[in-house]
Amino acid sequence: MHTCPRCGSDAVPDPEHARVICCLSCWHTWALPKDTHCPGFLPRLMPALRVLDEYRDLNR
User: Fold this and answer.
1) Is there a contact between 49 and 28 (Cβ–Cβ < 8 Å)?
2) What is d(CA 19, CA 26) in angstroms, rounded to the nearest whole number?
3) What is the pLDDT of residue 52?
4) Which pLDDT score, from 0 to 100, does residue 20 have?
5) Sheet harboring 20-23: ordered strands across?
6) 19 CB contacts (<8 Å, ≥6 apart)?
7) φ and ψ of 23, to 5 deg
8) How far is CA 44 from the centre of its chain?
9) What is the pLDDT of residues 4-56, one digit of tens each?
């Protein structure tokens, strides 16, 4: 259950629209924020570290 920011009563997810909340009293609707997916730096960092490791071995 959610709380309406306008009137403070109960609100439920809208069955017709994804990620939309609808108030049961004043019919105010609002969208939930999108989930942010952060891939991070690991997929790019690991290959870069391997290249640096190989480069270091070549300079010896």
Assistant:
1) no
2) 19
3) 79
4) 92
5) 2-3, 10-13, 20-23, 29-31
6) 31, 32, 34
7) -75, 140
8) 21
9) 988 989 999 998 888 899 998 999 999 988 766 666 656 667 777 777 777 77
* pTM given for the model: 0.52
Q: What is the pLDDT of residue 36?
A: 60
**In sequence order, which ranges of 1-60 are alpha helices (DSSP H)?**
42-58
Helices vs strands, H then E, count in the chain: 1, 4
Rg (CA), the chain: 24
**What b/e sequence results for 4-25 when a residue is b if at least 16 CB atoms lie within 10 Å of its CB, and e otherwise?**
beeeeeebeeeeeeeeebbbee
